[in-house]
Amino acid sequence: MRFPRQAKIFRGPLDAAPAAGLVFLLLIFMQLGSLLYTPGVLVHLNNPAAIIRIAADGRLHFGTNFYTEAETNLLRTALAKSAAGPPFDLRADPDTPPKTAARASNTVNSIFQIQLPGGPRNLIGTDNPIVMVAVNFLGQYIYDNKIVEERELKAGLRERLQEAASESKELTLTIAADEQANWKDVKRLAQWAREAGIKETVLAEWPDKPSVSPAQPPP
């Protein structure tokens, strides 16, 4: 048994209305597709402005300038003013000797150490338990051997305050601020301490201006 065919070969003129509707639907889908959220984290790779490069002669190249080992303060200033970091990536040129690269790497490490300002020898002490927070020249806060943000820092200060209160003692915040740290960052830290309930805040100073590693602030 055979059924008659209903489909026929199209031989007439094209109807413009359905074709225009299809084109408009494609345009709508393309516009809405650009607004859809794509899961993931935005990562900027190979940012040339955030790289500290070690040249073959041991000089440090950042931005458009080269810095010698004696010009670390100038490099510090350039890093602090840079809009590219932190973090900064340290790379050595392929033709850099290993010993030269190691020495330059140590120089860069010293740049990121906390350099306390000098002060009088009759330093003020306290009988209260202390909590140490360092502020580096980049405006970062270092607590419990790591760089922390506002929320984590406030939580840590409140926890230490509760520990001191359990012993019926007050807690003193010691701020180890780098000598090139922005004063606004130091004042912001003092304000966070007051909001956490800490009433006494002192600034750490050393007569001899020693360098203190951010991971190990001075006692």
Structure description:
- The protein is of the alpha/beta class and 219 residues long.
- Among the domains are: 65 residues, Nucleotidyltransferase, domain 5, CATH 3.30.420.270; 83 residues, Nucleotidyltransferase, domain 5 (2-Layer Sandwich).
- The chain is 33% helix and 18% strand.
- It is built from five helices and eleven strands.
- The strands form three sheets. A five-stranded mixed β-sheet has the order 8-7-6-9-10, with helices on one face. A four-stranded mixed β-sheet has the order 3-2-1-4, with helices on one face. A two-stranded antiparallel sheet has the order 5-11.
- Helix 4 packs across helix 5.
- The longest helix has 18 residues.
- It is elongated and about 105 Å long.
- The C terminus is likely disordered.
Task: Give the structure's gist in a few sentences.
This protein is of the alpha/beta class and 219 residues long. Helices cover 33% and strands 18% of the residues.
CATH fold annotation of the domain at 130-212: Nucleotidyltransferase, domain 5
Largest sheet: 5 strands, mixed
Kindly state the mean pLDDT as a whole number?
80
| E-strand count | 11
Helix fraction bin: 25-40%
Give the spatial strand order of the biggest sheet.
8-7-6-9-10
Broad CATH class of the domain at 130-212: Alpha Beta
Unreliable spans are 209-219
N- to C-terminal distance: 100 Å
Q: What fraction strand?
A: 15-25%
SS summary, helix count: 5
Q: Rounded to an integer, what's the Rg over CA atoms?
A: 30 Å
The SSE order reads HEEEHEHEEEEHEHEE
**CATH architecture group name of the domain at 130-212:** 2-Layer Sandwich
Shape: elongated
